């Protein structure tokens, strides 16, 4: 085993038993690691997760970027709000406001956007990006980027709504200055995503042209506002999707960085309990070829991506199966179906699975993954020890940092976020 892989195992073992892990130097050249957390627009409803919790938990102070998810692209080829009520209309009381002061009637803007503005006041170095698309909001990207004119139209509409802050029905520029850039979450150019998405072979080239158009319009706006805007993208882990949809040697000319999906390698849509976010393919894995973090990162490097601009995505949730055969501690064993979950079958937040009774933690330190098993039900498990190991992988591989999906899955003390931050100081 290579020395850096031995170090991964040693650090994970120490973290798993509650040992203190010494900080290691920042990236060569003095550049700090980016730490990106996604905040979901809809989390304020059933999950009761407001931006005030990002602040009170201490998570906000550990992040460099917060991505607000999501803003869809419409059939008309423009950017829009998926939920204006959540974005800028709903009010928050004292207890649910970032600054502790509730919204009042007649203020210029309310909703999550106003809370983002308050969060930035509390954390002046935090950069907030609007994430465009997502799993259910990517259906019309392909149409919207088909021509030079349509790309210009799309990008202009996105900047007008989210960056310039011209919200429908409110005074011009009311939300200006809240967002510091754009995160492209087109899932996926040139290959299947959510059912019904428009897909074309031309998506691959057009995604590059889209990044170029965003970069050009953001830079032009910067000359007026004197504010530099970030452009990032969420990128797939599967080598086939990379090949089908991305010119890895070209898009990073325009992107500040890309976040690579480091999870959902396997999940409850399958009939066998498995890992969803292992660093390396585990020994005895029944699939060949198989997915892992290292497979994904190496595929992007092979495609021409600069390693310092690749940011590894980390899951704050688990994939789960039930009716799992009691053999090999459940790993790779047949299952009868998805495990019950609070919001969806087969998935559960870290903050919930960490408190499940009668489950035993199992770790494969060599492969960099863990799981919980009670003899029948199996949950993948990324806890602070796994985050420390993954932070060390990021360092050893020379990557640009970490991304976390999503902040509402963490516990009240932001244990996962704090572990990532400690590992990437």
Automatic annotation (TrEMBL):
User: Is Nucleotide-binding found in the keyword set?
Assistant: no
Catalysis performed (reactions): Random endo-hydrolysis of N-acetyl-beta-D-glucosaminide (1->4)-beta-linkages in chitin and chitodextrins
GO MF entry, a single one: endochitinase activity
Tell me the first and last residues of the signal peptide.
1-28
Which key words tag this protein in UniProt?
Answer: Carbohydrate metabolism, Chitin degradation, Glycosidase, Hydrolase, Polysaccharide degradation, Signal
Identify one Pfam family in the record: Glyco_hydro_18
Q: Does the keyword Hydrolase apply?
A: yes
Read off the CDD domains from this record: GH18_chitinase
Gene3D superfamilies for the chain: 3.10.50.10, Glycosidases (3.20.20.80)
Which residues belong to any copy of the GH18 domain? 33-425
Which GO biological process entries does UniProt record here?
carbohydrate metabolic process; chitin catabolic process
Query: What EC number(s) has UniProt assigned to this enzyme?
Result: 3.2.1.14
| Similarity comment | Belongs to the glycosyl hydrolase 18 family.
Q: What is this protein called?
A: chitinase
Traced from the root, the source organism's taxonomic lineage reads: Bacteria, Bacillati, Actinomycetota, Actinomycetes, Micromonosporales
């Amino acid at each position: 085993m290579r020395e850096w892989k031995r170090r991964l195992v040693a650090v994970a073992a120490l973290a798993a038993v509650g040992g203190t892990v010494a900080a290691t130097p920042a990236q060569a050249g003095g550049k700090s690691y980016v730490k990106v957390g996604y905040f979901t627009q809809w989390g304020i409803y059933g999950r009761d997760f407001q931006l005030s919790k990002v602040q009170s938990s201490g998570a906000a102070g550990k992040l460099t970027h917060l991505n607000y998810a999501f803003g869809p692209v419409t059939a008309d080829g423009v950017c829009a709000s998926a939920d204006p009520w959540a974005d800028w209309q709903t009010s928050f009381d004292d207890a649910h406001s970032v600054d502790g002061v509730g919204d009042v009637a007649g203020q210029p803007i309310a909703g999550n956007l106003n809370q983002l503005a308050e969060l930035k006041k509390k954390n002046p170095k935090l950069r907030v990006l609007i994430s465009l698309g997502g799993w259910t909001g990517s259906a019309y990207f392909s149409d919207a980027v088909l021509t030079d004119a349509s790309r210009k139209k799309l990008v202009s509409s996105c900047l007008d709504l989210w960056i310039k802050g011209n919200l429908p029905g409110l005074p011009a520029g009311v939300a200006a200055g809240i967002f510091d850039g754009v995160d492209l979450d087109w899932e996926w150019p040139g290959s299947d995503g959510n059912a019904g998405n428009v897909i074309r072979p031309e998506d691959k080239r057009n995604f590059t042209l889209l990044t170029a158009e965003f970069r050009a319009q953001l830079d032009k706006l910067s000359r007026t506002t004197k504010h530099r805007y970030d452009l990032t993208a969420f990128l797939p882990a599967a080598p086939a999707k990379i090949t089908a949809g991305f010119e890895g040697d070209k898009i990073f000319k325009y992107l500040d960085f890309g976040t690579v999906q480091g999870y959902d390698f396997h999940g409850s849509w399958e009939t066998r309990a498995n890992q969803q976010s292992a660093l390396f393919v585990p020994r005895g894995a029944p699939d060949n070829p198989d997915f892992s973090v290292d497979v994904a990162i190496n595929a992007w490097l092979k495609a021409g991506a600069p390693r310092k601009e690749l940011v590894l995505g980390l899951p704050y949730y688990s994939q789960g199966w039930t009716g799992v055969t009691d053999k090999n501690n459940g790993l790779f064993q047949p299952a009868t179906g998805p495990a019950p979950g609070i919001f969806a079958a087969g998935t559960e937040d870290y903050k919930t699975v960490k408190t499940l009774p009668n489950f035993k933690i199992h770790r494969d330190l060599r492969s960099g993954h863990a799981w919980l098993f009670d003899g029948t039900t199996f949950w993948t498990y990324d806890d602070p020890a796994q985050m420390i190991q993954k932070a060390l992988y990021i360092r050893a591989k020379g990557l640009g940092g970490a991304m976390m999906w999503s902040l509402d899955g963490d516990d009240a003390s932001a244990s996962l976020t704090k572990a990532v931050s400690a590992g990437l100081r």
